[in-house]
Amino acid sequence: MNPQLERALQECANEPIHLSGAIQPHGYLISCQLPDWTIRHVSANVEALTGAEPAGMLRHSLREFLTDDLIQAIAETVGFGEPGAPAQRAAVGNIGPMADLCDISVHVADGLVHIEIEPQPRGAGERSPTVVAQTMIARVAASEDIDDFNQRVAEQVRLLTGYDRVMVYRFRHDDAGEVVAESRDSALQTYLGLRYPPSDIPVQARTLYLRNRIRVIPDATYVPVPILPDRDSRGAPLDLGQMALRSVSPVHLEYLANMGVVASMSISIISGGRLWGLIACHHRSARRVPPGIRAAADLFGLFVSMRVASREQHDAVALEENARSVRDALSLRLDNAADPRLALQGELDLLCRAVACDGVGLVQAGHWYGAGRTPNESRMPDLLDWLRRTHNGAGPVATEHAADWCRGPGETDGLAGVLALPLDLSRNEWLFFFRREQIEEVRWAGRPDEPFLVDGDGGKIGPRASFSAWNETVRGHGLPWSDGDRRVVGRLHQMLRERYRRGAAHSSVGDLSARRVRLDVREQRGRLLQLSELLEGLVHVSPREAAQLSARINTLESELQSLISAVSAVDD
Question: Contact 32/112 with Cβ under 8 angstroms?
């Protein structure tokens, strides 16, 4: 990566987008301090709503500008919420000398009550967000196929909001995004299947999508409205991370302009506390989405998030159930084996079913054993060298990149992903799970290695101007090992280590038995020598006594043969 681009990416990642110090001009902000509702911050445009200059509102009570019924509704909403929670709709009421009908949302952060006010468009009929969301949910709930479900989600949100394009945008394991469903105006080119580099939605932006589930930009050509004062009582910039009206990054506005987008909205899809993806909406001209419609979209987004989380939980449970079945069967077989360590060599086919993989390999006493699709035995030194470089003694080691464990390109036998379990580090014995190389033909929305436009000095940063499909063939990578895979393998590892310890104990018992047998053999040898000397002194014996002596010698010979067989078995 060239230094200018690297610096541009770092500056983008470090941009404090939650501290923009401004809001979008389609609404107003008033921040108060309880218990007396003293106004501490206002947006610079607030006079258009209240008829009072910003300076004339600061340090005054909110009761001078809002009616008691609205303040009561705000107080009740604050009482039900928690500090740091997303903004909630509190009321719809008339504000200011012109009695403008406004939608009021509120949240608490940093010891202040932040009130966001948006005038409702005249003639906009208010539909119950709950009823609207229920209708949308009913239209998608019956879909069991994930692709069909995502498509229905995109269609329902477009029907609700009227945007030109609505996409279901999923984050991959590498933080790149991919459009997995799309509903659009037929005049627009499709983005379905296109992939976007991680820098398009940097880490701090993804964090804000978790804090604020709905983000809307009615007109990306807006001029930001400053917040007065722009610092809190401690002199720190005001944190606007939870505000729906927060002014967005100039880089993002330029990004939208390069795409030909004037208005946008996003609905977060959250699963397991992480940002799974977005329902992204684009429009070619300015477009207002009333708060009531946004509330319905938020409820619908919560349902989509629950369905996604439920599907992931179902898959995780199925994975664990299958792994438990394999683990129990393997445990039983090893427990019944004379030596669990050696018996493991014959159970590799069963281990292939423990986790989604294409093959299993085992290194024992310097020998290679495999089942399914595994590398050639000649790759064993490369694998062990990779483990020496990466294993910290704490447990399994994993990679999805073939280059990590194979030095020569094209020498991986079509494999890429490896997950290795240490069985006995003193003997350098390991169990490996392998996954095939996933050869992908990726269609990027513009070149992924050119996410920014940077001038010759690297001083000017701007998003790329082209989103034309750019094709790339990706090789040398396998399907990543998921957290579920690692949990399953971790439990399997624990069971195998326990059986290995029993095998070592079995080996110690075997060594002790062998020593005892050898002592018995030496004792019997001494007795035989003594009997031989006695026989030399026997000259006169009767036939009856000779028969008894012969029987005793036969018995002694039989005992000797048994001891010899026992010694041979232990040595084997």
Answer: yes
